[in-house]
Amino acid sequence: MKFAVGSRPWVIANTDCIWGDNGKGRLTNNIILAVMQHFLSLFRREPRIAVVRSLGGANAGHEVVLGEAKHARHVLPSVYHPNVWMIIAAGTVVHPPWFLEEVEKAVAFDPNVRDWIRISGRATVTMPWDRLEDRYREEALGRGKIGTTQRGIGPSYEGLARRVQNVHFAMLQRPDWTEEYHRLRGEAIGRLVRLYAHLPEEGDATSQVEASLAEIEDGFLDACAEIVQYVVECHELERIYEAADVAILEGNQGLGLHHLFGSRPFVTSAPTDPLSMASAAMLPPPDRVLYVAKCFATRVGAGPFPTKLDDPEATRLRETAREFGTTTGRPRDVGWFDLVFAEHALRCMAARWLPAEAVGLGITKLDCLDGWGGRVRLATAYDLNGSEIYHVPDDTASLARCVPRYAEYDPWSGPSEQCRSFAELDEACRTFLLGDWEERSGLQGLLGVRLRVATAGPQPENALWVDGDGRWLLPE
Ligand code: IMP
Q1: Do 211 and 285 have their domain in common?
Q2: Using a 6 Å cutoff on CB, does residue 59 contact ligand 1?
Q3: Are residues 271 and 367 in the same domain?
Q4: pTM score, two decimals?
């Protein structure tokens, strides 16, 4: 692979294989650090890196801990280094006021960050009425609600698919954008009144919708005027990629929330797999894919979660592992690592058909199970209607009836957080992670994908690359 201007960038995808919230943000930071280190030693220069979010929106909550400070990113890629491109590509849905708030926080970290942010003119704008519709829809669904993050994600993608009310960033530069906005606003109010007039509120529906909209649209048009400075055309984005040595695709949510392959309808409204991420970014298929999961499982929002733990273990794990949503603050459901689901995820992401050296696992939060008082479990099969099955049923109602069967492993002792190399982890922990490749045991052996990195604490130095330094990320 030649790293020269005009050649295509080397593409690394960082993707989640369960229900999201597995540590992609912090791993993006570790990937950047490893790539920088290798470039400096191999080529004696800093690499040109573009980190790209190409799907999803402010529903994501990527957290990076640096020293005492905890940073949350929602749409902006998790970049904390100067001179790294932060691209928000065509498949995303972005609400301008929230985006600008995120930029302000990033500026506090790096005053020049604005020069490195670009939004595709084809990314979809989450309109104020999309937020309102997300709320009304959930209220209307009542007990059947999805438990969305209320960030207007579903309605934004619906507008895109319906081809009406679909605003993308290039439109914000039109001279008549304000009139267009008011025209769309009138249409949206009519639609919301038609669909949700039955919701139990007092007074006439039109003025209620008007009033709720007025509350959330304050400052929206100003934000639209400000955000256009970041908007680029596809050909300009291609120039940036051409000049980049490495493009890192930062994933959204996880395969369990993929709009096709997740637990429908309890999913988000976008795909979450690395091939979709690459195409929505205008990049070729990734050269390296890191599939990220915790050493246990969490889920937030409604929908089946076969390995979910009950109290008191659930509360203990949730509190030890600080499992509360970055975007919404909701307590997450917690449970054991689900190999059946992880295998489903890898299958749907075509992991088996990619070259073995191109794929890898990243397992996070090992420190949270340090000294767990009992055996650590891995779900290896489900019982469904009296039969043992090894796959995730396509019908979510069947998935909800699956009862996991577990393999048990010895707990490990810590503090793992003090380990500075993979080899220093407690042997029980390495057995749980690596097992035996030939005999198909342990997390790696059972999934048939090599473990590349494990994390045992939130700080950058708590990421332990199995090869020592993450050289795996780059070409031979
Ligand atoms: P939406 O994406 O806000 O429409 O939410 C749909 C479902 O995806 C809900 O169950 C959310 O809790 C879940 N969800 C959305 N984004 C995330 C995320 O970043 N992490 C975990 N769950 C998420």
Answers
A1: no
A2: yes
A3: yes
A4: 0.96
| CA-proximal residue: ligand 1, atom 8 (nearest) | 268
- Is the CB of residue 52 below 6 angstroms from any atom belonging to ligand 1? no
Residues 270 and 178 in one domain: no
What CATH number corresponds to the domain at position 24? 3.90.170.10
Expressed in angstroms and rounded, the spacing between residue 471 Cα and the centre of ligand 1 is 33
> What mean pLDDT, rounded, does the chain reach?
95
Q: Using one digit for the tens of pLDDT, what is the confidence trace for 244-263?
A: 999 999 999 999 999 999 99
Residue by residue, DSSP assigns 114-180 as GGGEEEETTSEEPPHHHHHHHHHHHHHHGGG-----SSSHHHHHHHHHHTSS--BGGGGGSTTHHHH
Task: Tell me, yes or no, whether 96 and 173 share the same domain.
Answer: no
Among 6-20, 124-138, 224-238, 441-455, the least confident range:
6-20
Q: pLDDT tens digits for 411-440? A: 999 899 999 999 999 999 999 999 999 999
Return the ligand 1 atom nearest residue 60 CA. Answer: 19
Please list, in sequence order, all residues whose beta carbon lies within 8 angstroms of the beta carbon of residue 419, skipping any fewer than 6 positions away. 425, 456, 464
Boundaries of domain holding 152:
125-230
Domain co-membership, 115 together with 131: no
Residues 395/262, Cβ–Cβ less than 8 Å: no
Q: Are 15 and 273 in contact (CB under 8 A)?
A: yes
The CA 85 to ligand 1 mean position distance, Å, reads 26
